[in-house]
Design goal:
This protein is mostly helical and 139 residues long. Helices cover 55% and strands 0% of the residues. α2 packs antiparallel against α5 and α4 packs antiparallel against α5. The longest helix has 36 residues. The chain starts with 9 loop residues before the first helix and ends with a helix.
């Protein structure tokens, strides 16, 4: 039998990565060791987290292609989205009852195309407003 007493567990003797010096600034702070709080250095005022609520113009176009007005609702244009949905629905009913007339069909196609174009332009306007707000906040 050996008279040597066992030493500390290897994981206990090695320094924890959170206790090592960390290059500053980090985009995401390292997780603190168990029971420790984040160091105050991570509360630097120059480090800012921005959550962008960017709108995808292609998704807005696809949504408006499926149902006119849904792309506008996705962009946050509630009034325009509801107006497009109501106009599309009312014209759909007129088209069903007066299917032999060409005008309701042309109006339906026009509503569909107008809704898709407006949804794409609305998403681009929303992204431009968002970029302007972020640029003003980072000055």
């Amino acid at each position: 039998m050996s008279d040597a007493t066992p030493g500390p567990h290897p994981a206990q003797s090695a320094p924890h990565p959170a206790n090592l010096p960390v290059p500053y600034p980090q985009p995401y702070p390292a997780a603190p060791a168990h029971g420790q709080q984040h160091p105050a250095a991570y509360a630097h005022p120059a480090v800012m987290t921005v959550v962008l609520n960017r709108k995808e113009p292609v998704l807005a176009a696809v949504l408006s292609l499926l149902f006119p007005g849904v792309g506008q609702l996705y962009n946050g244009q509630t009034v325009a989205g509801i107006l497009f949905l109501v106009a599309w629905f009312v014209n759909s009913i007129i088209t069903v009852f007066f299917f032999w007339l060409v005008v309701p069909v042309l109006v339906q196609i026009g509503i569909q195309i107008w809704a898709v174009i407006d949804a794409v332009l609305g998403a681009q306007r929303a992204n431009h407003r968002l970029a302007t707000q972020v640029a003003q906040q980072t000055r």
